[in-house]
Specification:
637 residues, mainly alpha, 5 domains
């Protein structure tokens, strides 16, 4: 039996008192167990050790009993001994939180500079903070040279590292290990990731020639037009060529002719290498293509990236012959993706080059249940294919799942409201299950009312055709009522909810959007004021009835603003009206599918595609099919 220390001794003593002063406990029922578990966690938080110890005894055999050990250890992790942590890890190897609590404990050891204990218990990790603590531990235990040998890769990254790394970096730099060329490489990484604050901070590590060019590199990142003042960059050196090349590439995306004029001068006065010449030339080629100017011939050197960018530029300009040309040059595997098959068919149709080839591609795509498949079906006037698989798992089979400890724990964690740990259990379990069990698990999770997780499981388990799970009709009464009040189609409301929160009423984004339709509080209050509803509190946004009503009115307002064109409404719902107004400027008359494909923000572009496809699926499932793009939506107005 392992040695007991600290809390272990206290808990053992309390359990002795509990047993000594009570008769044999009656095993509580499941409902009582859940209530007792919640109370036990509260007791531990409040410091009521006797009550907690009593609950530990009563909950022996309950699925979540191991989590009481976790919370007990977590509550005193800052003073936990190595023996306690190791004992917990041995007893609960299969708990997802076991690895988490171990990493937390290591960070506490690092903050306390208990280096020997840290090294004895460290395991390889991708966590930068733990990596830095490991090198600090090596340094602190005398392995100075070994520690310094591994610092550079940790320092030379495109982002700021955790504060725990600062002491390590300070001694490494003070010891003279940071060379200016390494700082230069990190500066380039930072600027390529648009980490301006980090790039400004890095300026302190340069001197002399490096310092001047580091500032120049930052300047052309912020204001690319500065590179067109050729006389400022007369020096021909490796550093100057890097600055000039970087500036020209950025300028080509803003003012390609200015970049081309400057490049014509620079390439005669500076000795750029072949790679630099090709990169700059490609940037100017792409910049001109985005302005609608395509080369008479096709460069033989073209990389897959250049070909893809040229195809994108041709599509943005509706240069259909160029679309055909550049798609045909894409790598064979990429050509066969649904996206490029659709646009090749669209281009072949528009140019009348190969009507039968276009129809053949559309017909093949129409067999698929996705955004491009739905668009293709409408192009040739065929019925869309939902390709639904109806899953049938016998109740007895589903009941058997609860014999799997992870299933029992995750369903109980959901029941007591611990969604974070419940998700951790599912994420750990799903890859271990066979396909039949995955189906059963997805149905079980749906049956207990955890809709968002059942959707996630179906997606992760590749149950793509399980539409009853992936496209539920939760909160249908509220959606129907809101649709009637706002005239927003039910299928569109369901699609927005499905995309925004996957029907999780407690969803909250990093931008503090809340609830089923992910409303920002200020937006929700503005909507309420406009339609004469009570101003919602922050917590009101987690109430499905309130959230859907306000979200529906917001969509109705956007539909009115954008003449009923749902693609624009979806884009505005995701990215804001000001961005959409900018994106549609001077685009009137553009085919809507092409406009969607050229939305500048990838997140919004994918968002709009998903919402339209989801709305199509919901319309079909409801027996009220709507066109993928309605008559007034086919052309951007």
């Amino acid at each position: 039996m392992p040695n007991l220390t600290g809390f272990g001794i206290l808990l053992k003593a309390l359990l002795f008192v509990v047993f000594a002063n009570s008769s044999v406990w009656a095993q509580p029922g499941l409902y009582e167990q859940r209530a007792l578990y919640r109370r036990a966690v509260d007791d531990l938080t409040a410091g009521r050790s006797r009550s907690f110890a009593k609950a530990v005894v009563q909950l022996e055999g309950y699925a979540l009993r191991p989590y009481l050990d976790y919370y007990a250890l977590q509550s005193r992790l800052s003073i936990a001994t190595e023996q306690e942590v190791q004992t917990f890890r041995e007893q609960h190897q299969n708990l997802p939180v076991t690895g988490i609590v171990h990493r937390r404990w290591l960070k506490i050891l690092g903050r306390k500079r208990q280096w020997r204990t840290f090294l004895d218990n460290y395991e390889p990790s991708t966590d930068a903070e733990l990596q830095c603590y490991r090198l600090r531990a090596l340094y602190g235990t005398g392995a100075r040279k070994a520690a310094f040998a591994e610092v550079e890769p940790l320092w030379k990254v495109a982002r700021s590292q955790p504060k725990a790394c600062d002491p390590l970096f300070d001694v490494w730099i003070s010891a003279g290990y940071l060379e200016e060329h390494v700082a230069w490489e990190r500066l380039q990484l930072a600027l390529e990731s648009n980490q301006r604050t980090l790039a400004r901070y890095l300026q302190r590590y340069f001197s002399g020639t490096y310092k001047a060019w580091a500032q120049s590199l930052y300047n052309v990142h912020v204001r690319p037009s500065g590179i067109s003042r050729v006389n400022r960059y007369r020096t021909d050196s490796e550093l100057s060529r890097t600055v000039i090349g970087y500036g020209l590439i950025r300028l080509a995306a803003q003012n390609v002719e200015s970049a081309a004029t400057a490049w014509a001068k620079f390439k005669t006065t500076h000795s750029f290498n072949d790679t630099q010449i090709q990169t700059i030339t490609d940037a100017i080629l792409i910049g001109r293509a985005r302005d609608g100017q395509f080369p008479a011939g096709q460069p033989s050197h073209a990389s897959a990236e250049l070909i893809r960018d040229m195809a994108e530029a041709a599509l943005a300009n509706l240069s259909w012959r160029q679309v055909v040309t550049w798609i045909e040059r894409l790598p064979a595997q990429e050509q066969q993706t649904n996206r490029w098959q659709y646009w090749q068919a669209r281009a072949l149709t528009a140019t009348h080059l190969d009507a039968s080839g276009a129809h053949r591609r559309f017909r093949a795509l129409a067999e698929k249940r996705d955004y491009y498949g739905f668009l293709a079906a409408e192009q040739i006037g065929s019925e869309i294919q939902l390709n639904e698989t109806v899953l049938r798992a016998h109740p007895a089979q589903i009941a058997q799942l609860n014999k799997i400890p992870e299933v029992a724990r995750s369903t109980e964690l959901f029941a007591v409201g611990d969604l974070i740990n419940a998700r951790r259990e599912w994420n750990q379990l799903i890859p271990k299950l066979d396909p039949i069990q995955q189906i059963q698990v997805a149905q079980l999770v749906q049956q207990i009312g955890w809709i968002s997780q059942s959707i996630a499981i179906a997606n992760d388990a590749n149950l793509r055709d399980a539409l009853a799970i992936r496209f539920p009709f939760s909160y249908q009464n509220v959606v129907e009522r809101t649709s009637h009040a706002t005239t927003v189609p039910q299928s569109f409301l369901f699609a927005i909810i499905r995309q925004e929160s996957a029907f999780d009423p407690r969803a909250r984004s990093t931008a503090n959007a809340r609830g089923l339709m992910q409303l920002i509080h200020s937006t929700a209050k503005e909507v309420a004021r406009r339609v004469r509803l009570d101003s919602p509190s922050m917590s009101d946004l987690y109430v499905p009835e309130i959230n859907i009503e306000l979200g529906g009115h917001h969509l109705a307002h956007l539909l009115s603003r954008y003449d009923g064109q749902r693609p624009l409404v979806a884009a505005a719902y995701n990215a804001g009206r000001s961005r959409v107004n900018r994106w549609v400027r001077n685009r009137s008359g553009m085919p809507m599918d092409a406009w969607i494909e050229t939305i500048p923000l990838r997140e919004t572009r994918n968002y709009v595609k998903n919402v339209l496809a989801f709305a199509k699926v919901y319309g079909q499932l409801m027996g009220n099919p709507m066109p993928m793009l309605q008559a007034h939506e086919v052309i951007l107005q």
